[in-house]
Write a structure and sequence with these properties.
This protein is of the alpha+beta class. Helices cover about 15% and strands about 35% of the residues. The chain has three domains: about 100 residues, Immunoglobulin-like; about 100 residues, Immunoglobulin-like; about 150 residues, L,D-transpeptidase catalytic domain-like (Beta Barrel), CATH 2.40.440.10. The longest helix has 24 residues. The N and C termini lie far apart (about 75 Å).
Length: about 425
């Protein structure tokens, strides 16, 4: 008797399955709306693009509107022949979709429109068209940097434009078209250095032993009175995370690989009046031999501070001439006093070791010096001295997004009328 309820439950489920099976057999799978293939929704939509062999004006936005009783648009996907998506907005009631990003010139587009009628039945229409050529117009191309190769984790990506872009909206178009991907993936942002140059970096340094790819989607896109041209992509890799931290007051440089200390070196840095710059710098290059002259930094020949020296194992960290290098003439002061004219000096053997350990893009940071802060731009790569908030403030895309948030917030605060 105690097993009866369980038996009755099983029998009930069996009868239910049988009943469902009979219903499916009687009605057929085509009776269920979700099983139906989408019908041709051409009669339910109005498309703003060209028909037949005509070509669309890339300056004009795309628009799709629903028409007919109860019809609504549920989704629109527009892509060009190389896979670039066209950003767009669909109204809440499904009556209208319009593009919010410019089309490319001389491109082939496929627009897939999904609809729903008053009974909930799905419709679909695929539209293809070509855009017209921009003709003989000035193009905007991009040159990525640095050269392809292996770099340290502090190496920013640079983008040099062939023509200046000053308008904020045009800058946002450019920025959205410049893509940087990394493995492992890290979020990052472009910032505008000037009208023709952008730098890209993540919030923190790049991951060690990662790959980084940059490319431009600007080809055929209108940017102000310019049209985007073809650009060569960039492929980089990073090595181990090498960081050299120089404490100017302690007269030591500590070198880390992937967070683990691998060497501590006695050094000398800039003396009063010639203090070494504080902050994060990035290795720009390595030169086995450099002839250093005081006249190159504005010291008159014959003065008490003038010099003309052969220097070996010179690792450059600023364009103005700051190096980490061998300084055999100051070994008595290394680890004890700052006597240089701004460079970081060490023994020849330590300089050789450092020269052979670091690569372009590695981090060289100076702390506790009386010198000025490293310039973020213009004298090497001081990009990492900007806070992430400050860095993002130089992005046209981030600025546009922030302005949009501010407009929404202001609307919320505005009194109702």
């Amino acid at each position: 008797m105690s097993h009866s309820p369980r038996i009755r439950t099983v029998m009930g489920c069996t009868l239910l399955v049988a009943a469902l099976g009979a219903s499916a057999a009687a009605c057929g799978s085509s009776s269920h709306p979700l099983a139906e293939k989408p019908y041709d929704a051409a009669s339910q939509i109005d498309f703003s693009g060209p028909s037949g062999s005509k070509k669309a004006d890339p300056d004009k936005p795309l628009e799709v509107r629903s028409q007919g009783d109860g019809a609504r648009i549920t989704d629109v996907t527009a892509t060009d022949g190389i896979g670039r998506y066209v950003a767009g907005e669909l109204s809440a009631d499904g009556s209208r979709w319009h593009s919010t990003a410019p089309l490319a010139a001389d491109a082939h587009y496929t627009v897939s429109v999904s609809t729903e009628d008053g009974d909930g039945d799905p419709g679909r229409k695929v539209i293809t068209f070509d855009t017209a050529s921009p003709g003989k117009k000035k193009t905007l191309s991009v040159k990525f940097g640095p050269d392809a190769g292996k770099y340290g984790v502090g190496q920013p990506i640079t983008a040099e434009l062939s023509a200046p872009v000053k308008d904020k909206a045009a800058r946002a178009v450019v920025e959205r078209a410049l893509k940087v991907d990394s493995q492992p993936a890290v979020a990052g942002s472009w910032t505008w250095v000037d009208d023709k140059k952008l730098h890209y970096r993540p919030e923190e340094y790049w991951p060690a032993n990662s790959t980084i790819d940059a490319h431009s989607n600007l080809a055929g896109i209108k940017v102000g009175d310019l049209w985007g041209g073809a650009s060569k992509p960039l492929h980089l890799t990073t090595g181990d995370r090498i960081e050299a931290i120089t404490d100017a007051s302690a007269h030591t440089m500590t070198v880390y690989r992937n967070g683990k200390e691998i060497n501590e070196i006695p050094v000398t840095t800039g003396k009063p009046g010639f203090e070494t710059r504080n902050g994060v710098k990035v290795v720009l290059g390595k030169e086995y031999f450099v002839r250093m002259r005081s006249a190159s930094i504005g010291i008159a020949d014959g003065s008490s501070d003038s010099y003309d020296l052969p220097v070996y194992y010179a690792t450059r960290v600023t364009w103005s001439g700051e190096y980490v290098h061998a300084a055999p003439w100051s070994t008595g002061s290394q680890g004890a006093a700052n006597v240089s004219h701004g460079c970081t000096g060490m023994s020849t053997s330590n300089a050789e070791w450092f020269f052979n350990t670091v690569r372009e893009g590695d981090i060289v940071k100076v702390v506790n010096s009386g010198g000025a802060e490293m310039d973020p731009f213009g004298n090497g790569f001081g990009d990492w001295n900007l806070s992430w908030k400050k860095w993002e403030s130089g992005s046209a895309v981030q600025a546009a997004a922030q302005n949009g948030h501010n407009a929404v917030d202001q609307a919320r605060l505005s009194p109702e009328v």
